[in-house]
Amino acid sequence: MKIIVMTVLIMLCSVATNAQIYKWVDENGKTQYTDQPPPPGASQKEQRLNIKPTARSTSETDKTKNLAEERLEFDKRRQQKKEEEAKQQANADENKKKCIDAQTRLRMYTDSPRLTVPDGSGSIVYVDDETRQQRINEANKAIAEFCKKN
């Protein structure tokens, strides 16, 4: 936004420097400088001043380029930050789902005295105490990994 404002101001200044300037002496003897022709009652010593605008210095051009480059770099960094935040949010959401799943599995293995699970071939088998303890340990590890408060 600042670049746009600065560009408009520079353009307006360049338009104003190209305007015709008149120098004349009023009835009280004061010298007047205006961009309008003098009124009819002014002295006959009217002069049209030929003021030529100077070329913009290279330092001004460099400053404008530097501002534009800084703006582009700023926008790039802001976009990268937004993308990083989106990745972190997606990762946090995924970890939350995994946390809930691990807590559900832990509750299932600790609360059910005789747990049955499918064996993969279409039949159901009972979970023995050793397998139950192994699954409880796995669920606890998953809870420790995914249920961290950040």
Overall description:
The chain has 150 residues and is of the alpha+beta class. Among the domains are: 20-52, no CATH class; 84-150. Helix content is 59%, strand content 12%. It contains three helices and five strands. Strands 2-1-3 form a three-stranded antiparallel beta sheet, with no helix packed on it. Strands 4-5 form a two-stranded antiparallel ribbon. Strand 4 and strand 5 (124-126) form a beta hairpin. Helix 2 packs antiparallel against helix 3. The longest helix is centred in the middle third of the chain and has 54 residues, at 58-111. The chain is rod-shaped and about 115 Å long. The model has no long low-confidence stretch (mean pLDDT 80).
Largest sheet: 3 strands, antiparallel
Question: How many DSSP H or I helices?
Answer: 3
Overall mean confidence score, pLDDT: 80
What is the H-and-E element order?
HEEEHEEH
Shape: rod-shaped
Tell how many strands the DSSP assignment holds.
5
Radius of gyration: 40 Å
Work out the helicity level.
55-70%
Counting helices, strands and paired strands, the structural category is: alpha+beta
